[in-house]
Amino acid sequence: MAEPVHASPVHDEHHHDQSFWRKYIFSTDHKVIGVQYSVTGLAFLFFGFVLMMVMRWNLAYPGEPIPFIGSLLGENRAPGGIMLPDFYNELGAMHGTIMVFLGVVPLAVGGFGNFVMPLQLGAPDMAFPRINMISYWCLFLGGVTMFASFFLPNGAAGNGWTSYSPLADIALNGQTAWLIGMIFLITSSLLGAVNFITTAIQLRAPGMTWMRLPFFCWAQIVTAFLLLLAFPPLEAAGVLQLMDRVANTSFFIPEGLVVGGEVLERSGGGSPLLWQHLFWFLAHPEVYVLILPAMGIVAEVIANNSRKPLWGYRSMVYSLIFLGFMSFIVWAHHMFITGMGSVMSTFFQTTTMIISIPSVIILSALFISLWGGSIRYNTPMLFALGFLPMFGIGGLTGLPLGLSAADIPLHDTYYVIGHFHYVVAPGTLFALFAGVYYWFPKVTGRKMNEFLGQLHFWPSLVFMNGVFFPMMIQGLNGVSRRLADGGISYDFAGEVAGLNRMMSVSAWCLALAQIPFIINFFMSIRNGEKAGRNPWNSTTVEWLAPSPAPHGNFDQEIVVTRGPYEYSVPGSDKDYVPQAEPAST
Amino acid sequence: MEIPYTVEAHPETGLNNGKIGIWLFLTSEVMLFGALFATFIMLRIGSDGNWAAMQAEAELNIPLATLNTAVLIASSLTMVMAWASLMRGQLGRFKLFGWLTVGCGGIFLVIKYFEYTAKFEHHHYPESSTFLAIYFAMTGLHALHVIGGMAWNAYFTGPGSKLFHTNRQWLTDRVEHSGLFWHFVDLVWIFLFPVFYLL
C-alpha cells in the first residue's frame, strides 16, 4: 500500500509572525539549526579539501610553481608560486583541524543529530532550543576564528592538528588563534552534548522504550557522552597551552629547552608528554565521535534498503555502549614511541585490542543484515555499502598500530595517514553522503537525483582508494608524514615517491567527482522529484512527519508500538510496519 | 511551542529537563577540573622534589585562604536558604538570601584580588614557577566560575525573580539548578584549598 502523499504545507499558527532573522538565522527550531550545522559542515569539508588539494601539488611536484592559484597566495606563503614548507605545515595543520572539528563533527553530530534525532524520538524539538542555537553560533565563531587565522601576519597554526608542545608553545604562527577557535568549538560541542542527552532521556514519544530506539539515536547518545566527557580535558589543555604562549608559563616546556641554539628563558619544569596525554584523552574518543554517527546512519540506510530488520540490534547497541566506555582508556596507544614505559604500553595495547571487538561486532552485524535481503541499490544504499569494506580496511589496518611493537616502525609514517583516512574519508564521509541522500527528502520535501547520485558514488569510490591505498604502501616503505616534499629528499622514498603523483591526480579527480553532488544538491532543492512523507517506505518515526516538517514537527500524536526495524513482517500487507502504527492493524 | 517537562517532572525519570541538563553539565565540569588536577599531579611528580621549595617561595597566604573557605561555605548555606525560602513561597527572604549569596561571592573575589596583587608585588607571576603557573591557572579558572555563578544568581534574584508571580515552580527549579552549580564551585574550592595551601 502506498503511503498517502500529503501536500505538506508548512503550517503552524503560532509562528506566522516570526521575522526572517528569527526563522532562518537565529532560529531555535532543531531542524533549522540542523540544516545550519550541515551547510556549515559541508562548506568546511569543501574548504578543508581545497587545502589538501593545494598540498598535494607540492607532494607530487615539489619545488614547482602551483598552477592557477600559485600567484594569488602571496610572497610570504608561496614566492613565485612555489610553496614554502611553512605554508605546507599551515595547510596540513588546518586541513586536519578543519576536517575533524569543523567538517565531520558539525555535519555528523550537529547536523544529522540535530535534525534527525528529535524526529526519530518523536519529540517536538530539543530539550533546550535556545542552548541549541547558542551551540551553533559558538561553532560559527570558532569557524570564523580558524578561517581568519590564515590572514594573520605569521599565518595560521602550522603545528599539526595535534599541536604538540613544546613546538606549539613557541611557534610564531597563529597557534593562539587556533586555541581560541578550539575553545569556541569545544563550548559548542559541550552545549550540544548536554542537549542531546537530555532530549534522549526526557523527550522520547510514549512507547519509545530504550530498546525501540533506532540505532542512529543510540549512536548519537553515545557520541554525546564522548563529547561531554572527553572535550573538557582538551579545554583544560588548551587553556594551559594558551598560558604557555601568552603568560610565559612552562606547563609543557621542560627545563633547558634549546631553541635556535639558545636556551629558552622560561622557568621550565613542565612536561611535553602532559600535552600529549591531555590531547589524546580527547582525541581518541574524538575518533569515535567521527565514526559512531556514521555507523548509525549506515545502520538506518541498510535496514531500510535491505528491507530487513537489523541483524543483532541488541548486541549492536551493547557493543556501541561498550565501545564508548572503552574509548576513554585507549588514548596512549598514540604515544607508544614517547618512552612512557613498557607497562603503560602493555596496558594500552591490551585495551586497544579489546576495543576492536565491539567495532567488529557492529560491522559484522551490518554485513549479516544484508544476507537474504531484497536490496534496493539506490544512492544512499550505495554509499552505505561502500562504507562497509572501506571502514573495514580502515579498522583492520589500525590493528598493527595498536600493538606497541608493530607501531614502532609504522608510527608517524604515511601508513598511519592511510589508516585513519580510510576510516574517516571513504568510511565516515561515505556514510555522511548516504545520510544526505537519505534524509534530503525530509529536509526539503524533494528527492535528490538518482543518476547524478550514481555519478557521484562510483568515481568517488575509485578515487578515494586511489588517494589512500598508496599511502599504505609508502608508509610500509618508511615514508614519514608531514614532509613538504613528499619524502623525495630521502633515499628510502625512492621507489615509492612516484606514487605521490598518482595520489595527487586521484585527489583532484575526486574533487571533480564531487561536482555531480554539488549540482544535485542545489538543483534538487527546487527541481527534485517531489517526495511524500515517506519516500523510502521506512519504519522509523521521522517519516511520519510532513516533509518538510513544520515547527513542532508532527501533525499527529506519536505513540510507538513496536521496534524500529519491522521490515518484511510475515503476514503484513506491506513490507514495512511503521513504529507508531497501532498494534491492531 | 511548549517543550514538555520544562517545569513538570517526567513521569518515568522523576526529573525535569533542567535538572538533567545541569547534572550533565556538572559532569563535564568534573572532567575539566579533573584534567587540571591531573596536570597538578603530573607537574608535582615531575618536579624532582622541588615542589615544596616552589610552594614555599610562592608564600601563599593561608589565613586569607581559610577566611575565603569560610566565606564560600557560608554562601553555600545562604544558597540553600534562598531556595528553601522559595519553596515556602517567601519572596522577600529569597531575595535577602539570594543577594547574601552573591555578596559572599563578591567578598571571595575581593579577597582573591588582594591575594593576587600581593603575589604580583613580590614578583610572583605565573611564569615564575610551575607551582605558581598551575596555582594561577586553577584558582583563576575557579574565580571565573565564581563570577559565572554570581551572574546566574544575581539574575534570578533580581530581574529573573519576576517569574515568581507567573510560574513559581519554574523559578524554584531554576534557583535549585543555579544552586547546584554554586555548590559545585564551592566544592572545587574545597579541593583547591588543601591542594595548594596545605599539602
Q: Can you describe what's shown?
A:
The complex is a heterodimer of chains A (585) and B (199). Chain A is mainly alpha-helical and 585 residues long. Chain A has one domain (18-253, 269-544): Cytochrome c oxidase-like, subunit I domain (Cytochrome C Oxidase, Chain A). Chain A is built from 17 helices and 2 strands. Chain A is globular. Chain B has helices spanning 17-45, 51-58, 62-87, 91-121, 130-157, 163-166, 168-198. In chain B, helix 1 (17-45) packs parallel to helix 7 (168-198), helix 3 (62-87) runs antiparallel to helix 4 (91-121) and helix 4 (91-121) packs antiparallel against helix 5 (130-157). The longest helix of chain B has 31 residues, at 91-121. The radius of gyration of chain B is 19 Å and the shape is elongated. The model of chain B has no long low-confidence stretch (mean pLDDT 96). The interface between A and B is large, with 47 and 41 residues.
